[in-house]
C-alpha cells in the first residue's frame, strides 16, 4: 500500500504557513488540531443522525497527551476517521477544506452540523512547532488503517497503519525551538484559553478529586483519580433562553470571570438569519468611569475561542460590556481592517447595538424604578454609546435620564419641557443648568433655587462631550455649568438689573480689584447683580472650560489644552460690601477689603491655595478680632 509523493500546494494558502506567519502566535496550532478532532466527532454524530453510519457515538472525545521523553504532543479523537483516499484528498491536497466540503454536502439534510472547519489550513499549523508529524487514522467505514508521515517539507509517505480503533491520532515531534509546548502547564493554559467551551469533551491527563461516601452513620472522604476534562461542552449561550433561569446566567458569568463583580443584567443573543450569531452579554457596573476592561468580551467560532480583541466586530462603546459572542460568519484569520469592511461583521455589529438598546428600553418600560436604580452604573456606557453611534442615540434618546439636585430622575426631553417656562432666556433658548459636584457648587445652586430654577447633576467623565452633543441634537437648548457665570447671566432675561454705581464709581472700582489679582489669569468686570448675590463671582467661561475638558479626555492637550487657565471676575456693584470698599478713605484699606472678598470667591472655587490661603486665614482672624 505504500505511497510517496509531493503535497499539492497552492502557494497563496500554504506559503505563509511554511514561513510560520499565518498566525501571529504559534500556540494556535493546538486550537487548530483540537478543533479538527472536534470536527471529526461532530461529523460522526451527523452521519449517525442521518443513518449513514453504525458507529457508536456515546462517548465521543478528543484527548491531548504530552510525552516529554519522546518530545511529542499527541492529539487523538474517536471521530469519523479517514480512509487512504481521504488522507490523500484532505491532507495532501492542501487547497481542499474537508470541513467545508462536508458542510456543503450535508447542508440540505441537517440544519446545523456543528462543524468548526472555519479556521483555514488547520492541520498544517502543526508544523509551526513540529519538525515531523505522523497521522494514524482508521475510518468509521471499516477501511484499512492509514499512517501518514511528513517531515515538514512537501514530501510525504502513506503506509498501511496498525490503528485498531476508529478515529485519528496526530503526533507532533516537537522541534527544538518549541520545547516550551512540552510543559503541562503551557498546554493546559492553551486548552483553557481556546477550548474551554468546545462541544465535545477534551481530556488532558488526570486529576484527583475528593469523593464523599457514607460509612454507616458517618461520611468519609476518599481521593480518587479521574479524567481531567478541561471544557464545558454546553455553555449558556448555546441553550435556548427559555431553558435558562437567572441563576444560570449568573453562574455562567462566574465561569467566565471568576473574580469579577456581579453584573447588573444580561442580554441573550440568538440570531440565525440573515447571519448566525449567539451569545450572552453582561452589563458591568462602570463606577462612573470609562475604564479599560480587564474582563473583555470573548469572541468564539462554533465554541472555539478566537480573541478578546473584538473592536472590529462590535462598536467601540460595546467593548465596555462583558460576555461571549459566537458566530461562524465572522472571518477569523484576517486583518482588523478587513474585519471592519466585511458586510457580515457590519450586520452583526448593527444587530448587537439594536439588541442592547432594546434591552435598555425594555427595562425602562417594565420598571422605571429599577432602571433609575441602575442609572448611575450604566450612564457612562449609554453616554459613550450615543456619542459613538447616532443609531444608538436614536433608540435610547427617550430614556436618557438626568437627575436633579433633589435626586429626582427624568428623561432629558421631559425635563426640558418641565423647565421651559422658567429657564428660557431672552434668545428663546432653554438653558439646562448643571453641576458636576453639588457640594462644591452649593452657593450657585442655592442662587438658582432662589430664582425658581432647577439644576441637574452631570458628573460623568464624558459630561463635556455629552452637553455639546445634546446641544446639537435638541432644538433651542443650551447647557451651562452653574459656576460658569452669575445666575442672571447664565439665564439672561429681557429685564435689566439697574446698577447702584455711577460710571465714575465703576471706573474707580475696577483698578482696585485688578490690583489684587493676576492680570494674566483673571479678567475683571464690574456688573449689576441682585443685592443678595455674592459680592464677587469667579467663573471660567463655559466654552473654554468645555473645550479643555474634551481635549484632556481625549488624551491630549490640543490647542485649548495648551492655553493658560483664564477666569472671569465679576464684581457685584450692587452689593453693600462693594460700596464699603469705595467708602474707605485709605487706598490700603480698599485693597485689603477687596483682597478679602476676592479670596472668599477664590476659596469657593477651590482656587485659593498655599501662601495665599495662609494669608487669607491670618487676615480673616485679624478682621474678626477687630
From TrEMBL:
Highest taxon of the lineage: Bacteria
Gene3D superfamilies linked to this entry: 3.30.230.80, 3.40.50.11260, Heat shock protein 90, C-terminal domain (1.20.120.790), Histidine kinase-like ATPase, C-terminal domain (3.30.565.10)
UniProt xrefs under InterPro entries: HATPase_C_sf, HATPase_dom, Heat_shock_protein_90_CS, HSP90_C, Hsp90_fam, Hsp90_N, Ribosomal_Su5_D2-typ_SF
TM segment ranges: none
UniProt xrefs under SUPFAM superfamilies: ATPase domain of HSP90 chaperone/DNA topoisomerase II/histidine kinase, HSP90 C-terminal domain, Ribosomal protein S5 domain 2-like
Annotated GO MF terms: ATP binding; ATP hydrolysis activity; ATP-dependent protein folding chaperone; unfolded protein binding
Domain Histidine kinase/HSP90-like ATPase: start-end pairs: 25-178
Keywords: ATP-binding, Chaperone, Cytoplasm, Nucleotide-binding, Stress response
Keyword flag Nucleotide-binding: yes
Residues that bind ATP: 32, 36, 77, 82, 97-98, 168, 336
NCBIfam families given in the database record: PRK05218.1
Recorded family membership: Belongs to the heat shock protein 90 family.
Protein name: Chaperone protein HtpG
